[in-house]
Amino acid sequence: MIRIDEIYDHTFLPYIDRYIANTCMFYHDPPGRIDPESLLCSPDAELARNYIYFFDQEPIEINRMKPMLRSLISRTAPNLQGGVLVTSEKDSDNANALARYLSAGNFYYFFHGWAALDWFRGFHRTFMIHPWEERQISRTFLCPNRIIGGERLHRVAMFYHFEKYKLWHNHISAPRTCPVENQDVVTIASRLPTDKYPERMEIMVHCKDIPKTFPGETTQEMHSYRLSLFDLACDSLLYLVTETVCFGRRLHLTEKTFKPIAMGMPFVLVAPAGSLEYLRSYGFKTFGHLWDESYDQEQDDHKRLHMIATLLKQLDDLTRTEKQQLFESAIPVITHNWEHFYHGNFERILWQELMQMLEDIDDHLGDR
């Protein structure tokens, strides 16, 4: 298994040194930053002919990245002939636009699949996760939320639906103010389109359930990179994953999607269209035999959120006995996904994908 915090130094750089001649690697340290000062290069660009730029950990927001991109272009323009962009976004308009901006080749691998394997390792050898065969279901879903500003407008849209359909009694966390961008949830809600959310301001202004925290928390804690909330997961029918991005044509899932898989839960994804199909392409199974997953194919982003909310309401209206029966019917898929994640099959698929990407990059740069 790749240790994700060493993927550049221990995986990519040694491969480049050994197999892709005269090539340097640009990446960000610490990961997640997009300022020019975080952009590192190894080895020295002056000694290379080609470059590979890894922007594989965060979703692409070109306008916010432009100061850093100008720095990258200034460092590559004098002597580098060929360039390659590597991202974690597949079939992505944003990745295509960024590659055009850099006049670079466009390549992809599933970074966050590796991150999930690393961050959630070992939990199949603990007793922190309650056996799913013994669980007693009393809630419909578990849904943690922390950052709601920037690209996370879909999370505020889901708060609108939670209020509209009276779903707040489920296990949900929701901040009144975004802890990163310091914007109030009502201000963010004003960006929702009025034709899709006609009562958006009235609902959000008068919503009494925000802020909402989990038991034992005084604010919405950072749970993204670790497994947690085991007791709340134990009595929930499903995990509602509000992914990092949801809007636009791109496939970009993070470690958040793998939390229900590692914890033995069904899931619904608040994510870009096609995300369930994307996940199935890596060998996982989803739950279309138990409830309607047609939301995944809806290209209208806000209509897709409405479809998800309608599904949650339908499941929430079930009796406790019906929810228990539905969960028990999901156990074969839960077991398959858990074994696929923890017993090596997913890792083998990711390794084949990563090696194929590196070979394709070598071919691409070799043609320059």
Number of helices: 13
Beta-strand percentage?
5-15%
Number of domains: 2
Mean pLDDT: 94
Annotated CATH topology of the largest domain: Rossmann fold
Instruction: Indicate the structural class.
Output: alpha/beta
Summarize the SSE layout with pairings:
Layout: H1 7-19, E1 23-28, E2 39-42, E3 50-55, H2 62-76, E4 82-87, H3 93-102, E5 105-108, H4 111-119, E6 139-143, H5 153-164, E7 171-172, H6 185-189, H7 200-205, H8 230-234, E8 236-242, H9 258-262, E9 267-270, H10 275-280, H11 301-316, H12 320-342, H13 345-366
Parallel strand pairs: 1-3, 3-4, 4-5, 6-7, 6-8, 8-9
Antiparallel strand pairs: 1-2
Helix pairs in contact: 5-11
Report on this model:
There is one protein chain. Strands 2-1-3-4-5 form a five-stranded mixed β-sheet, with helices on both faces. Strands 7-6-8-9 form a four-stranded parallel β-sheet. 40% of the residues are buried. Helices cover 40% and strands 12% of the residues. Helix 5 (153-164) packs parallel to helix 11 (301-316). It is an alpha/beta fold and 368 residues long. It has two domains: 4-108, no CATH class; 115-342, Rossmann fold, CATH 3.40.50. The longest helix is centred in the C-terminal third of the chain and has 23 residues, at 320-342. It has helices at residues 7-19, 62-76, 93-102, 111-119, 153-164, 185-189, 200-205, 230-234, 258-262, 275-280, 301-316, 320-342, 345-366, and strands spanning 23-28, 39-42, 50-55, 82-87, 105-108, 139-143, 171-172, 236-242, 267-270. The chain starts with 6 loop residues before the first helix and ends with a helix.
